[in-house]
Structure formats: structure tokens, C-alpha cells
Amino acid sequence: MSDEYRQFRHIVRNVYTFNFRSSSIQSLAIDLRACLDVVTQDMQQFMQFLKQLSDE
User: DSSP 3-state assignment of 6?
Assistant: First the structure.
């Protein structure tokens, strides 16, 4: 999943707007909630890890 978002970011950052496919953008938008949930969970785990390090 993350490779698709990186590819989209590459297209946007390099202004290859003629390469946009509406079906690809729609698919990424639909999956965005799941991606956000994974990122949020990863960030919470990372913050817990940092807290454990600071408590030691």
C-alpha cells in the first residue's frame, strides 16, 4: 500500500499531472483511512518506545 502513495507523491512533486489516472487517485483516496490508521498506530507505538527509553 505505501508504495502506491509514494508513487503518487512522486508524480505530484514532479508535476507530472498528465500521468494522473482518476481510477488510481480514487483507489488511494478510498484506502486513505486504513493508511492513516496504520500510521497512527505506528506513531503511538513509537511514542511508547520513546517514553520507555526516557523512563529507564
Answer: helix
* Polymer length of the chain: 56
Q: Per residue of the chain (56 residues), what is the pLDDT tens digit?
A: 578 777 777 766 666 556 666 777 787 788 888 888 999 999 999 999 999 999 98
Q: Count of CB atoms within 10 A of residue 46's CB?
A: 10
Phi, then psi, of 44 in degrees rounded to 5 = -65, -40
**Residues 12, 29: contact at Cβ < 8 Å?**
no
Cα-Cα-Cα-Cα torsion 11, 13, 18, 24, nearest 10 degrees, comes to 40
Q: Extract the C-alpha cell encoding 11.
A: 508524480
